[in-house]
Amino acid sequence: xxxxxxxxxxxxxxxxxxxxxxxxxxxxxxxxxxxxxxxxxxxxxxxxxxxxxxxxxxxxxxxxxxxxxxxxxxxxxxxxxxxxxxxxxxxxxxxxxxxxxxxxxxxxxxxxxxxxxxxxxxxxxxxxxxxxxxxxxxxxxxxxxxxx
Length: 148
Prior knowledge:
By secondary structure, the chain is α+β, with helices and mostly antiparallel strands. It has 4 helices and 7 strands. The protein has a single domain (2-144), classed as Aminopeptidase (3-Layer(aba) Sandwich). It has a 7-stranded mixed beta sheet.
C-alpha cells in the first residue's frame, strides 16, 4: 500500500529521487530541492502543498501544487515537480498523487495548469482529463475542477 502525505520540507532521500530523475534527463527535482533550500518555493502559500508517496518507507514519488504565477489573481493552480520513480510507473502511483493534489486544489482553485514537453507525461495527463492546449503561454494542459 502506498502512503501519501503532505510534507513541509524536502526529506533527505529526495536527493536519491533527484538522481533517478537526472538519469532520465529531468532536472526539476534538483530545482525543487534548490527552491526549498533558498526559500524560493516552499509550497507554503495559501492553497499550496507538496506531497510525497512512499512504499514501505521508500520515497517513490513527489508532486506539488502552487498558485500559477502566470495567472496571478485568478483561481488557477499549477501542478509542479511531479515525478514518479520509474520502478513504480504504471502501478497507479501517479494517479494517486495527482488525485491527492486535485482534492486539495478544489478548495482553492477552479482550474489547474501544467506544462510538460514529454509525450509520455502528456498522455498520462490526458488520461486524467487534462486538455492539451497550444494557445496558452507557459501551459501544455488545463483541467477545470468541479466544486463538488
